[in-house]
Specification:
With 335 residues, the protein is α+β, with helices and mostly antiparallel strands. Helix content is 55%, strand content 17%. Strands 1, 2, 3, 5, 6, 8 and 9 form a seven-stranded mixed β-sheet that branches. Strands 4-7-10 form a three-stranded antiparallel β-sheet, with no helix packed on it. Strand 5 and strand 6 form a beta hairpin. The longest helix is centred in the C-terminal third of the chain and has 30 residues.
Length: 335
């Protein structure tokens, strides 16, 4: 029975990743250039070949025109508009509606970049599918609060980051040392996330993504070594490896947060809430795995021993890490 529990876990995780992509927030950015000129960017989540049924509208009718460019990435459908409307000197009073948002679990992040002053960020949800813009923008509290769910959603959609956390669990087991390792991982990625978002340290994202895949492969191999009774620094002090690789993963986390931006009057609060959301996501994931394993204890026919189950999961994670490594290396070479 243990075999089927682990197989169910490994089979379900890619679909969990797909569902997480479904809750990835859509993104609408409007940049003012003065004299009635605006650049508009719309990023709409996709899951495989499925495009979520969301469509943005503005009371000005700008988004009902054909977009200037349209492109598709593995995660988003991206459309841009370049608007020239001399009659519309400001965005005050412009209403934004998102068709289909009231029937979706996705949120929409709206970012207004004025020609003068600080950028403003607001959130649209299924309960609030309509937004009227004003020069005062969102309140500070509303803008900052959005970073907690953003952090949670980011870790839950980051299947590679969750694979690393699962690798730590396989290496350590459900022991108190796992808490120390996950805490070290959180502290480390919080440091590099802040350094990257604040512009103090910048590293190429493509190379970072490759190294993230390599870190997952490493922890999977170490889990296999531990299962065979061998010894290494990772096995004796897993928090050290978690901290070192956490520094790496923090740069990867920074990509999403850099694209969103931070409220200039509440940078520490936003960073804290984003990291707290990531930590809550990690705890939720570990708790889900622990619950799945706890169910096994009430099933008398457990055919697969714990060591064999760990090996099966470690091989699965290592295989996926190899795939990601080759895929990202190919993309880097083609760029």
């Amino acid at each position: 029975m243990m075999r089927w529990i682990w197989l169910a876990l490994l089979w379900a995780m890619p679909f969990a990743g797909a569902q997480a992509h479904e809750v990835r927030p859509a993104y609408l950015a409007i940049t003012e250039h003065g004299s009635g000129r605006y650049d508009i960017l719309w990023k709409q989540p996709v899951v495989g070949e499925l495009v979520l049924p969301l469509r943005p509208h503005m009371s000005t009718g700008w988004l009902d025109r054909a977009s200037r460019t349209t492109s598709v990435t593995p995660t988003h459908l991206i459309r841009t508009w370049s608007i020239v409307d001399p009659r519309r000197k400001t965005l005050d009073g412009v209403a934004i509606t998102i068709s289909g948002l009231d029937r979706s679990i996705t949120d929409v992040l709206v970012r207004i970049v004025p020609i003068q002053g600080n950028a403003r960020t607001q959130f649209m949800t299924s309960q609030t599918p309509r937004l009227v813009l004003s020069s005062e923008g969102a309140t500070r509290t509303l803008a900052v609060r959005t970073y907690l769910p953003l952090g949670f959603m980011h870790i839950m959609e980051g299947f590679d980051h969750l694979a690393f956390v699962l690798g730590l669990l396989l290496l350590i087991g459900l022991r108190w040392r796992l808490l120390a390792a996950v805490t070290a991982f959180t502290v480390a990625h919080s440091i590099t996330l802040a350094l990257s978002v604040l512009g103090m340290v910048r590293l190429p994202s493509a190379q970072i993504e490759m190294l993230v895949a390599l870190s997952i492969l490493f922890v999977a191999l170490e889990a296999l070594r531990a299962a065979r009774g061998k010894d290494s620094l990772s096995i004796r002090q897993p928090w050290v490896i978690a901290f070192l690789f956490g520094l790496l993963h923090g740069f990867a986390f920074a990509g999403a947060l850099t694209a969103i931006g931070l409220p200039p009057d509440a940078v520490p609060q936003a960073l804290f809430l984003f990291n707290l959301g990531v930590e809550l996501g990690q705890i939720t994931f570990i708790g889900s795995v622990a619950l799945l394993l706890a169910v096994r204890r009430f099933i008398p026919a457990a055919a697969l021993r714990g060591r064999e189950a760990r090996n099966l999961a470690a091989y699965a994670i290592g295989t996926m890490a190899c795939f990601w490594l080759l895929e990202r290396a190919t993309m880097l070479r083609g760029s």
